[in-house]
Structure formats: structure tokens, C-alpha cells
Amino acid sequence: MSEQIENTESEKSGLERHRRFMQGIVVSDKMDKTIVVQVTRRYRHPKYKKYVNERVRYKAHDEENTAKMGDKVRIIESRPLSREKRWRLTSVLERAPVL
């Protein structure tokens, strides 16, 4: 009986997902409660041994419209919020300089 309880507890901890974090720069804040974050990743090409910069853009949910264009932000993976939004803004790491 106690073995079954221990197994269910370990299954619960196994079901908890590890959510991914990413850092990037806000490239657009024109939508309401949505920002577009560009994440740059640098890796070495396996065949040609050249360093490649890969840029990916994610749409993230910004509830209070706090992030502005040029800010460095951190986003976290979440449930689907709309057709393209799968990320949420967690914090603004660095504000863009005011010109």
C-alpha cells in the first residue's frame, strides 16, 4: 500500500514541466498586450565549422504593456494564449536608452 503512494508522488513530480526561459530584445510593441522578442543564438555549424547567428522572433504576452522597443527582456514558456503567442513576459532586464 505504501509503495503505491510513493509511486504516485514520484509520477506527480515527473509530470511537472520544466518551463524554458529566454532573453531577447523587444523589436515591436505596437500590438496591445503583445510584444515581439528577438532571440539571437550563436552556434558553430557542424559541417562548415563557421559560426552562425540564428535569430528567432517570439510573440509574448505583456499584460501591463511595460516593455518598450529596444528593451532587453526575459520571457517564459506558457500555455497557448492565442494563435501565435506561447510566451509570457516575466521581467524587463534592461531599459532601452531614451533618444
Give the mean pLDDT: 88
**CATH architecture term:** Beta Barrel
Cα Rg:
19 Å
- The ordered string of helix (H) and strand (E) elements is HEEEEE
Strand content: 35-45%
CATH class: Mainly Beta
**What is the domain total for the residues?**
1
Specify the helix fraction band.
10-25%
Distance between the termini: 67 Å
Strand order of the largest sheet: 1-2-3-5-4
Uncertain stretches of 5 or more adjacent residues: 5-12
Q: Output the CATH homologous superfamily.
A: Nucleic acid-binding proteins
- Total number of helical segments? 1
Total DSSP E strands:
5
Explain what this protein looks like in three dimensions.
This protein has a single domain (19-94), classed as OB fold (Dihydrolipoamide Acetyltransferase, E2P) (Beta Barrel). With 99 residues, the protein is mostly beta strands. It has a 5-stranded mixed barrel. The chain is globular and about 45 Å long. The longest helix has 14 residues, at 2-15. Helices cover 14% and strands 44% of the residues. Strand 1 and strand 2 form a beta hairpin. The protein contains 1 helix and 5 strands.
Question: What's this, in brief?
Answer:
The protein is mainly beta and 99 residues long. The chain has one helix at residues 2-15, and strands at 21-28, 34-44, 51-61, 72-77, 87-94.
Characteristics:
mainly beta; 99 residues; 44% strand; 5 strands; OB fold (Dihydrolipoamide Acetyltransferase, E2P)
Give the arrangement of secondary structure elements.
Blueprint: H1 2-15, E1 21-28, E2 34-44, E3 51-61, E4 72-77, E5 87-94
Parallel strand pairs: 3-5
Antiparallel strand pairs: 1-2, 1-4, 2-3, 4-5
